[in-house]
Amino acid sequence: MLGAIKRELFEGLRGAVTDAGYDRDVEPSAVELEAFDDEEKGEFSSAISFAIAADAGANPMAVAEKLAEGHRERGLPDGVASVTVVNGHINYHLDVERMARRTLATIDAEGSAYGSREREDPDRIVADVSSPNIAKPLHVGHLRNTILSDALMNVLEERGHDVTRDNHLGDWGTQFGNLLHEYVEFGDEAAFEADPIAHLLDLYQQFERRDGLLEDVEEFGALTEGFAASVAEERAYHVDDGKEWFARLERGDEAAVERWERFREASIERFEAIYAELGVDFDCWLGESFYAREGWNDLVVEKALEDDVAMRGPDGSVFIPIYDDDYEDAGDPAAAHVDPSLDRAREMLEEAGSVEDAGFDAFYIVKSDGSTVYGTRDLATIEYRVSEFDADQSVYVVASEQNRYFQQLFVAARKMGYDEVRLEHIDYGMISLPEGSMSTRGGQIVTVREVLDAARERARDIVEEKGRNVDPEEVDAIARKIALATVKYGMVASNRGKDITFDIDEAVSLEGDTGPYVQYATTRAYSILESAERVPAVEAVDPSAFNDTDHNLLYHLGRYPLVLERCEERYDAAPLARYLLDLAHVFNSFYHKNRVLDAETAAEERLVLTDATAQVFENGLELLGIETLAEM
Fold first, then answer.
1. Phi then psi dihedrals of residue 515, to 5 deg
2. Each residue of 127-160: pLDDT tens digit?
3. Long-range pairs, 248-255, Cβ under 8 A, ≥24
4. Per DSSP, what are the bridge partners of residue 394?
5. Which of helix, strand or coil describes residue 271?
6. Dist CA 223 CA 214 (whole Å)
7. Strand 431-433 and strand 500-501: pairing?
8. Percent helix / strand / coil, the chain, rounded to 5
9. Please, are residues 314 and 180 in contact by the beta-carbon 8 Å criterion?
């Protein structure tokens, strides 16, 4: 409801600016939502008078008064009582009774669609989400990605976009050649059958430990020539054989493909079990291997060379040179400006003598041994999404350590002529452990399985200890929902850009401002509604019966669509998580300050208000992937 009023205020203000003769574009952001209890500012305000006054060399107060009067003459939106001017700011004050009726009527009419938006021409968004590497367990880094991206994609769909979720698996590259080598040398079929991911992880870590140890011995230097030669030979055998296995995989060698497919299928089976528990699914699983095996990698390499945007290095590699002035706004097709010419790069390379010393960044798409790299496969992904999905946006939910890489990818994509698709990197902070950075290679990780098990056990203890009238057979189901609420809310509500030191005890805590707190507020609303004989029709409500506490809750319910709009603009679901917590606090205050079922006055009005609150909780929690509970 407040979203509709904001749009109407924007239209009216824009008309008032035109009527006053000012040559000024008015953006929707010119109208801002203020706190409900700030009587001076009103519930909405605009500071556009200052910008107009600066352009016209006029007094901001005079401009504001002129615009306010013009807006009065045009007519204020239904639900706005008055417009005033204070210190050059234009302030709009709501009519709380009309706000109450309009808010309740809107929520009642729209129900589960409240806050959503329909678009005649929605953006087609194809997004990289979750994207774990096969042959390794899902860890808390994947958990953060999966939960953040699921909530965000839910919001974008709710706001009318056409979203395709692609679990872009890391299932191609030299590391899988190393794993194939290790499996042939040391693999145990019985161990693989018993627990394939654990066995493959052991082999991966074994390869890395041995290679690291041999590298350390080589660097030590105090060796006999014979021993040094033996160490170099041993290291070369494993490393070179790993490269050869990957080369065989890229050539389609039957033995390499058969083993790799077993690794992939076993991994996906384990991943699917975790995703099902999280309540997360995907539209496709087009991993990196798809682009390699289906010829898309070859297509983009040929395209880059034929269009003269990529060049060959002295070692036979292929790269796209990126200049310092290419980077700005590369993701935005309307603002990007890149230089696809190779002339500058050739001059820089001739002057510097080597690619490493040249004054550009080399974005490699073919290595010196002829194999592909991440950049090849990511450009192939863009080609595929543009040609096969007709994507308007290609979105990547990937940790912030890859920021520079995505800047380079976006520039390379523009140089290759992908100049209509929006490219968006939705980054998030890295997760480390109290003892240091996570490392799958070194075995220093916390798996998703560990987190979910710990959260469920903690929730089960709480339900058994404090749950009232809970059927013993329902304890596990309730504990599972509470556990997921704890983990999901914590991941979404935290500052997306902030690095996190992950503490499993904090992650599964049920105390304080958590998902279960919001769940409990919803359950309290359900309890009130269940105890009532009926919920009156909205038309029967008398808005004059509401007091200030009721008005505050109504105001927060009206904010919900604006919160979703902010999430959409920022590509971030955190504002929704924080809003729901705020709403839970406001509703609990309403519950403690007001009588509802046995109120002498306003009982029916507050039942309708409680019903509307439950609806907004349901809508918002569903977008976060959190289930509501009839009892806790």
1. -60, -45
2. 999 999 999 999 988 999 999 999 999 999 999 9
3. 248/177, 249/176, 249/177, 249/180, 250/292, 250/371, 250/372, 252/293
4. 126, 423
5. helix
6. 12
7. parallel
8. 60, 10, 30
9. no
**pTM of the full structure:** 0.90
Contact call for residues 116 and 572 (beta carbons, < 8 A) = no
Cα distances from 84 to residues 48, 89, 584, in angstroms, run: 14, 8, 32
Residue 444 has pLDDT above 70, yes or no: no
φ, ψ of residue 2 in degrees (nearest 5): -65, -30
Q: How far apart are the first and last CA of the chain?
A: 31
Work out whether the CA dihedral 528, 534, 539, 540 comes out positive or negative: negative
Dump pLDDT digits (tens) for 502-513.
Answer: 676 776 666 778
State the Cα–Cα distance between residues 569 and 562, nearest whole angstrom.
Answer: 11
Asked if the model's pLDDT at residue 343 lies above 60, the reply is yes
Structure tokens at 67: 């615009």
Task: Locate all alpha helices (DSSP H) within 130-224, ordered by sequence.
Answer: 140-158, 174-186, 189-194, 196-220
Could you give the CA distance from residue 146 to residue 166 in angstroms, rounded to a whole number? Answer: 11
Distance CA 557, CA 215 (A): 62
3-state secondary structure of 128: strand
Rounded to whole angstroms, what are the CA distances from 302 to 307, 342, 360, 380, 578? 8, 16, 22, 11, 48
Q: State the DSSP string of 29-67.
A: GGSEE--TT-TTT-SEEE-HHHHHHHHHT--HHHHHHHH
What is the pLDDT of the chain when averaged over all its residues? Answer: 91
Q: What are phi and psi of 120, to 5 degrees?
A: -70, -35
Task: Count CB-CB contacts under 10 A for residue 350.
Answer: 9
Number of C-alpha atoms within 13 angstroms, CB side, residue 401?
6
Torsion of CA 472, 473, 479, 482, to 10 degrees: -100
